[in-house]
Structure formats: C-alpha cells, structure tokens
Amino acid sequence: MAQLADAEKPAGDVEKPVHGAIRVGPAGWSYEDWAGIVYPARRSRGFHEAEYLAQFFDTIEINSSFYHPPPAANCRRWVERVAANAHFRFTAKLWQKFTHEGGASESDVKVVRDGFDILQQAGRLGAVLLQFPFSFHHTPENRAHLKKLLILFQDYACVVEVRHATWNNAAFYRFLSGRGAGFCNIDQPVIGRSLKPSERATSPVGYVRLHGRRYDTWFSDDPALAAAERYNYLYSAQELNPWAKRIERVAATAENTFVITNNHFEGKGVVNALELINLLTARHVKVPEPLRHRYPVLESIADQPASEPTLFPIAPKTPTAS
Questions:
Q1: Which of 17, 82, 294, 308 could disulfide-link to 88, CB 3.0 to 4.6 Å?
Q2: What is the CATH number of the domain that holds 221?
Q3: Is the whole-model pTM more than 0.85?
Q4: Each residue of 91-109: b (16+ CB within 10 Å) or e?
C-alpha cells in the first residue's frame, strides 16, 4: 500500500486532498488473539507478522519496545521483512524504564539506541513515542524529567503522549515545539481530568493514537479482568469520521503524520485502521482475507471481492455498554 499522500488513484475513486504524508497502522503485531482473525489460520513457512501487515499498512507501532528494548538483530530482521513496501516506517515506543519506572542508566540508553539506530539508519524509523501514564501530571519535576529524555533521545523524531489534562496548556506546547518534539493526539475514555481529543502538531511529525472507549475497564483494578479488555472496542463510522477530519488538519501542518490504532483486541484496531484509510482517501482498500470474514463491515470498503463468500460470518464480540 502506498502512503496516503501519493498513492495511485484507482479508476472510479475520488481522491481527497491530503497535505503531509499520512501513514495509518496498528499498534503491535504479536497478539495471540489475532490468529485466524488478522492472520491466516495456516501460515506458510517463514511467515512473519510485520511482513504480512506491511502489505496493508505503511506503519506499525512497535509495542514490544515498551517492555524491553529490541535487540539490534531483531531490528535488522524487521527492516528486511518490510523491504517490499518503500513507504513503510515503523514507530517505536520508548522503554517503560524511562517513562514509567525510573532508574534508567547510561547503559540503558545505549541498549535502546542499539536497536533504534538500526531502524533509523535504514530509513525505517518514523518516530519514537514517549508514552506517559495518566498519573504523570504537569509538575516542575515531571517537566524536567521530560526535558532530560528529549535531550537523551534528540537524535530521533520524538513524540510525547501525556494523558492528564494538566498538560493542556500553551507553555507545554511551546516547550515541545522548542525541543522539536511532537505531540500525540489521543482518543481515550474521557474520565475525570483526562485529556480530550485534539488536533495539534508541534513538530514536523504529527501523531494520533486511538485507544478505544472502554469506560468500564479503562481504570479498572479488577485482578480478574484480562488486560486486553481495556482495548476491546470497535469504533463506529460515526466515531471515526471526526477523527478523520482531525487527522487531515494535523497533516496540514506536519510533514509526516502517523495514526495508530491501539484497540488491538481481536484485530479491532486493524479494522479501524483500514476504515480510517478509506475515510482519508475515499478509496477502497486491500483487506486481509481472514479479517473480512470476522468483520463483514469491511466488505463495503474492500478493493476486491472475498475469495470465499461470507455467508456465515462470525459475529465480533462487543463490549458491554457503559
């Protein structure tokens, strides 16, 4: 799939104006519940998830880098796996030791760089996301910590995701712009002092992340609740339409914009990423064959008929209304 800014326009489709390049894709690729839904139930020898997804998307956010820095060897393999898509760029989450835990050392910085540098030197790293939790409020101490991180990783196109409304102030946005750092616009359950949807770009890199709207599970401390349930949410067309407009406005001032769907439960983020591409381009899209059988809503935007009729599709699970 070519990037949205310069993809070839199939006959009969009406092209929508897009300013900077927009790349849309899912967060992560290694989920057990994607087997037989996003990925084929039977995989060919040498199958790799990132290579498969790069047929449909121009970006994937590396999720595993949040839990531990990816080894350089892994990054080299990932570069090789997406070689067929010239427009493809990874984005990567910074290790949680820097954003959540504290106590990171110089050797920790080095191990992060060892992997990220491979992606960057190959021209495949679009951004590094510094994702902070809701508990990370705008305080002088936290502002100083953020500044330190932006200096440590200034060789990359850094983007900052904060979730608490105390960060919604002009001084913070000027700070990001002055450091050349991007701002991550998020869709999350707006509970208490949560940041609301926005359409802001503070650097040449625009960034949008959709987390889903599971109000009933977002802040749940129920130990019996599976962590993935926080992301068990499928956006409707009515919910995606305003985001498509926001994304276009972000792209109007950014050189490159990344849109990441983090509602990964049973491939729902993949569904919504495809729907966003359709909304942003007014073109039909290539759809993974297993996914269209699970989510028949994709039939109306698919660029090819299904290889097998979806006469008896499996209905997707839906969360309990909150």
A1: 82
A2: 3.20.20.410
A3: yes
A4: bbbbbbbbbeeeebeeeeb
